[in-house]
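To the wet lab folks,

You asked to see what we're planning to order before we commit. Fair enough. Below is the target structure as tokens, and below that is the sequence we designed to fit it. If anything looks off to you, flag it before the synthesis order goes out.
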């Protein structure tokens, strides 16, 4: 009985060992079978992934048995899982590119399966190794006359014309400063940075072994205008323009010119500095001549005006130029006035007098007589009057209690249209007829 039991134990152990050995044995593709490998993309960014599909067929073209083991190998990056069992002749795994650039040679093998023409080999280009062309552009494409900031956009594509993602692009500029010298491409194959500069700048972008063509970012010409002023009478400068005429005004002529090399203008406006202005359009003809009349000084001091032209170009840049107009007081002589008083008739209670004022001088240049606009009269008895003519009459009155003879001081003031004046006085004796007995 002991021997029999020992024999049975030995048999059980042998059977278990055989069974364990069968579990560990791999099912591989048989002789005359074929294997092929494919991937949906042949270009990956650094650390990118893609599925790998191996198809294993027997000689008759039917799928190998389910569970046939396919092994994947790569020269760069990694495959996970490395071994995959087929289902309906297909084994699928994932390729992980990793951080390094280069070309990964990936193969699929299984037993005696053969691959005609390396159909079991897939080459995947990773990162910068996939770069075929680098181009760079700027937005906006130029900078203003006072400098500015533009965005640089580098576009990286592979041999298949598809954008390459995850590639480091290095930017270089011969002027100004870059916001960042490197950037990584996005899913559209674009890497971006900024450039701040005040002059024309040449930029390039490099990815892998490829460098873009030079991109020149020009500095735009800004608006440029000049303004000059001349007197109408002499053609001289406007540093001393005397007021003239009865209205005491000064007329000058401005010449506004678009300077050589100026950008095309959108608008130009001339502000005369006296609360008025005039549009000059775009100065398409190069220059504009504009006359303007200023009010003169009403004191002994000059009166200054600043005329300013403001120009804005088609890019929105603006500039200004100014000139000063100094209007000096008119050259005149003092106004001299002679007052003449004449008694006309009188009664016991009234006495009529006639007064005449003769004004001379006050004209421009010291020779002509001023144009008198009005005469103001004070008759010395509390009564006044204003006339446009130089002659007037006045009746003095008294009560019987007042003296028969009275002294009065008469004053006349002659005024011009611009407010200058001259004054004269005359003392008269007003006598009334004697009171009847």
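Sequence we intend to order:
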């Amino acid at each position: 009985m002991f021997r029999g039991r020992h024999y049975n134990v030995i048999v059980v152990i042998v059977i278990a060992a055989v069974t364990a050995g069968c579990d560990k044995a791999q099912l591989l593709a048989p002789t005359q079978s074929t294997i092929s490998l494919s991937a949906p993309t042949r270009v990956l960014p650094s650390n990118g992934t893609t599925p790998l599909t191996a198809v294993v067929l027997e000689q008759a073209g039917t799928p190998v048995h389910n569970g046939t083991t396919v092994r994947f190998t790569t020269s760069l990056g990694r495959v996970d899982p490395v071994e995959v069992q087929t289902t309906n002749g297909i084994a699928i795994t994932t390729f992980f590119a990793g951080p390094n650039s280069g070309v990964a040679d990936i193969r699929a093998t299984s037993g005696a399966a053969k691959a005609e023409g390396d159909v079991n080999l897939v080459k995947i280009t990773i990162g910068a190794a996939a770069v075929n062309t680098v181009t760079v552009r700027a937005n906006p494409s130029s900078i203003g006359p006072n400098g500015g900031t533009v965005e640089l956009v580098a576009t990286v594509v592979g041999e298949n014309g598809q954008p390459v993602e995850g590639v480091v692009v290095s930017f270089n500029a011969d002027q100004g400063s870059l916001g960042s010298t490197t950037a990584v491409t996005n899913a559209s194959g674009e890497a971006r940075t900024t450039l701040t500069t005040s002059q024309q700048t040449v930029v390039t972008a490099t990815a892998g072994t490829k460098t873009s063509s030079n991109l020149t970012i020009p500095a735009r010409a800004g608006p440029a205008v000049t303004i000059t002023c001349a007197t109408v009478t002499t053609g001289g400068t406007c540093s001393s323009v005397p007021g003239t005429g009865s209205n005491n005004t000064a007329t000058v002529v401005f010449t506004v010119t678009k300077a050589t090399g100026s950008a095309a203008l959108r608008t130009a406006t001339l502000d005369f500095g006296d609360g008025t202005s005039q549009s000059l359009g775009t100065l398409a003809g190069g220059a504009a001549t504009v006359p303007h009349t200023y009010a003169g000084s009403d004191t002994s001091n000059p009166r200054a005006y600043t005329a300013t032209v403001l120009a804005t170009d088609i890019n929105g840049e603006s500039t200004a130029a100014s000139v000063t107009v100094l209007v000096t007081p008119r050259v005149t002589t003092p106004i001299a006035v002679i007052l003449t008083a004449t008694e006309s008739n009188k009664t016991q209670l009234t006495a009529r007098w006639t007064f005449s004022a003769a004004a001379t001088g006050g004209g421009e240049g010291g020779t002509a007589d001023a144009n008198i606009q009005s005469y103001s009269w004070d008759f010395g008895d509390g009564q006044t009057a204003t006339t446009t003519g130089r002659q007037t009459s006045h009746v003095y009155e008294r009560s019987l209690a007042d003296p028969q003879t009275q002294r009065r001081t008469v004053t006349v003031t002659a005024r011009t249209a611009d407010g200058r004046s001259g004054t004269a006085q005359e003392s008269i004796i007003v006598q009334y007829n004697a009171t009847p007995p």
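Structural context that might help your review: Residues 91 and 393 are 131 Å apart (CA to CA). The first helix runs from residue 2 to 24.

Thanks,
Computational group
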